[in-house]
Amino acid sequence: VSERGGFPVERKPMLQWSLRITAYAERLLNDLQKLDFTESMKKTQANWIGRSEGARLFFDLEGYEDKIEIFTTRPDTIFGATFMVLAPEHPLVEKITTQEQKAEIEKYLAYVNTRSERDRMSETKEVSGAFTGAYAINPFNGAKIPVWIAEYVLMDYGTGAIMAVPADDERDQRFAEEFNLPIVQIIDKSMHPGATIEDKVGVMINSDFLDGMEVLDAIEAILKKIEEMGIGTRQVNYKLRDAIFSRQRYWGEPFPIVYDEEGVAHALPEEELPLELPPLNDFKPSKGAVSPLARAKDWVNLPNGWTRETDTMPGFAGSSWYFLRYMDPKNDKEFASQEALNYWRDVDVYIGGTEHAVGHLMYSRFWHKFLYDLGLVPTKEPYKKLVNQGMIQGVIENLFMLKEKVNGRSKFVCAKLASRFDEGELVKIPVLIDYVSEYGSDDSYLSLEGIKKFIAWRPEYADAIFESESGVVSAGKLEKGSEADFRIYTFSEVGKMSKSKYNVINPDDVVEQYGADCFRMYEMFLGPLDQDKPWNTNGIDGVFKFLRRFWTMFFDDAGNFAVSDEEPNKKELRILHSCIKKVSEDLERLSFNTCVSAFMICVNDLKAENCNKRAILEPMVRLLAPFAPHIAEDLWHRLGNESTVCEAPFPEFNEANLVEDTVKYPVSINGKKRDLVELPAGLSQEELQKIVPELEAVKKWSEGKTIRKIIAIPGRIINVVVG
C-alpha cells in the first residue's frame, strides 16, 4: 500500500526514457580502485554493479518453437536442474500457460502486482509460485523440466528466467520443498566440512561427463561443451540496470523531445533550447499515469500536429553534474568553459551520505565518464576523495495499520496488539512526532487528542478505526473506553531524521534558545563526522557555557569591552599556539568534534591566566570564525576591524611558541613518588645528577641514609635509591 493514504499499489509496465548506464558498467567497476572512497562504499557500488561471469543458455520448450533464455554463473549444475522459473512478467508466461493452469496463473499474477520489487527481493521464508503447465527440455539429457513462475525471479535481472537447481541454491531448495519438486544432488562436498550449499567446492556427481571433476574444472568443461553444441555462449552479466529517466510529475527538467503524427521521437533543434516548463496551476497526477504537463494542452500540442513529451527528468538530471557549473556559473554559452574546467578539474573532497551510494554517486560518475568521452571534461572521475558523514538520527514513530480495509475503512491497531497479526498483514504508517506523547520512550502513544490531530493532518483517515487495549476510536470519536485512559501505543524505531519520517527536530527551536553558533558547534561536538549520532540536547549546555566564557574574555565585570594591548607572556602564547596547531591539523582530518574540545581547553587555560590581551584574543576570533561565525564577526568588529572576519587570514601556529621553558619531573624515592618539581627544560643527565641531591624531597627522604643511585632521565623522571 502507499505510504500516503494506504491505497493499494499496482505495478504496470510503462514506456519511459532510460539512461544507458549499463554501457559503462565495467568502467564504473574498474575505476573504483583508483578512488579515495571508503572500502564499504566501494563494496556497495561493486555489489550494485554486480559483475558475474557465466553462460547464456537456451532451453527448448516442449510443443513450442520458442526457447527459454537464461543466464547462469553455475552451468556445471545443469544436471541438477529439476524445474525452470520465469518472472511473472516474462512475455512467455501468457503464451505457454495451459488452459488447466490459467486460473491459477492469473490469480498469482494478481498477487504479484501488489508486491514491490523490494518485497520480492527480500530474504523472506515465505515461498510462493504457480505452475504454467508447460515443460522445458534439458539440452544435455533431454529431461522434461516443469516451468513455474515465482516472484523471487525478477524480469529486470538477467533474462527474467532461471534454471532452478535446488541442491545448490537456497531459494530453489525452499521452493522445491514447498511444491514437492525433485532435488538431485550433483556435488559431493564431503571433503569440505563447513562448506555452504552455494560454495563452489567439491566433486561433481550424477552429472554425466562431468562426474569426478572438481567444480571449477567442471565449469570450464561445461562452458566449452555449451559453445561446441551451439546452445549458448560465455557471457559477462551485470546486476546493474539502465536508469529510468522519466518522471510523471511537474517539477523537473522537461525533455526537449517532440513526437510526429506517427509517434516517432525527434530532438528539438539546439536553437530552441533551453525548453522551459509552462506555468501550471494543478500539479496533481493526471489520469492514465501521465505527467501533470499533459493538462497544458496549448504547450503539448504544437501547430504542426506534433506533440511534446510530457514526462520530466528526475532529480539526478541536475545533481549528476551541478558541481561542474560552480566552476563557471555565469557562462551562458556552455555549462563551463574548457579554461575553467582545466583549471578546477574535479572535486577535491566530496562529503555525502552513504544513502547516495547507488543513486547520485553512481549516476554522477557515469555522467562524468560520458562527458569525458565527448571531450568535455578533463578527468575520468568527478571526485578525488569521498567522505561519508554519519546521519543525525531520530526516533521514528509509527502506527500499525491493517493492509486490508475493514468494511471499506482503514483500521489501526495498537503496537501492543500487533503480535496478534502476521507480519504481512500490517503496514507501518509514520506519525508526525508533534502528536506523540512520551515521544522516544518505550511507551510512546497517541491520546484521543493526538488521534484527532493525526486525522486533521491526514484527512484520508477521517473515518478510520483505532483499536487499543484501552478502547476504540472510530471516525475521531471514542466508542469504547474512557478519554483519560485511552492510548494507542506507537511503534518506535531509531532511524534517519527525515522529512519523510516526520521526525525532524526544528532547528529554529534550538536556535531560539541557544543561538545559531551554539547549535552549529554542538552538531560538530556530537561525535566523529563519519559516525551516526542520535540527536539529543543533553550536552548542548556545555557548548553554550563555552561560548559564554569565550565572550566574557573580551569584557570586564561591568560588561564593558576591555581588551588589553599588553604583550602576552610565553605561557599565554603557548596556550594559543597549541590550540591553533590542534585545530589546524584536525580541520585537515575533518575531525570537528576534537576541534571543539581544543577550543574548550584553550579558553579554560586562558581564563585561568586572566588573559584579555589583543595579541591572543584576535587570533582566537579568526580561529573560531568557521565554527561560530556570528559571535566571531561581532567580536571582530568590536576589536576595531572594518572588513569581515571571513576575509581575514586563518592563523598559523609558530613552533617556537610551543617549546616549554620548564619541565615537571615526578620525583620518586625507592620507586615511590614523593614530589613533583619544575626544572628548566633542556637539562642534561649530568646536570640533573648534580641538582637532584639538593632537592627538598630528596633531602627529606634520604636523611640519615646513603644515596645509593640516582636515575635521572631528561624530560621524564627522577628516581633516587637510598639505603
Topology:
Blueprint: E1 18-19, H1 25-30, H2 39-49, E2 52-61, E3 67-72, E4 83-86, H3 92-96, H4 102-112, H5 117-121, E5 130-137, E6 144-149, E7 161-164, H6 170-178, E8 187-188, E9 203-204, H7 215-229, E10 232-237, E11 243-244, E12 257-259, E13 265-267, H8 297-300, E14 307-308, H9 316-319, H10 322-325, H11 338-344, E15 347-351, H12 360-373, E16 383-387, E17 392-402, E18 411-413, E19 426-430, E20 445-446, H13 448-457, E21 465-468, E22 471-474, E23 477-480, E24 488-489, E25 491-496, H14 507-514, H15 516-525, E26 533-534, H16 540-552, H17 570-588, H18 592-608, H19 614-624, H20 629-638, E27 662-669, E28 672-680, H21 685-691, H22 696-702, E29 707-713, E30 717-722
Parallel strand pairs: 4-6, 15-16, 17-26, 18-21, 27-30
Antiparallel strand pairs: 1-11, 2-3, 2-5, 2-10, 4-7, 5-6, 8-9, 12-13, 12-14, 17-18, 17-19, 17-25, 20-24, 21-22, 22-23, 27-28, 29-30
Describe the structure.
By secondary structure, this protein is an alpha+beta fold. The chain has 5 domains: 52-237, Valyl/Leucyl/Isoleucyl-tRNA synthetase, editing domain (Isoleucyl-tRNA Synthetase, domain 2); 320-387, no CATH class; 394-501, no CATH class; 509-657, Isoleucyl-tRNA Synthetase, Domain 1; 660-722, Ubiquitin-like (UB roll) (Roll), CATH 3.10.20. Helix content is 29%, strand content 20%. The chain is built from 22 helices and 30 strands. Strands 17, 18, 19, 21, 22, 23, 25 and 26 form an 8-stranded mixed sheet that branches. Strands 2, 3, 4, 5, 6, 7 and 10 form a 7-stranded mixed sheet that branches. A 4-stranded mixed sheet has the order 28-27-30-29. Helix 14 packs across helix 15 and helix 17 packs antiparallel against helix 18. The mean pLDDT is 93.
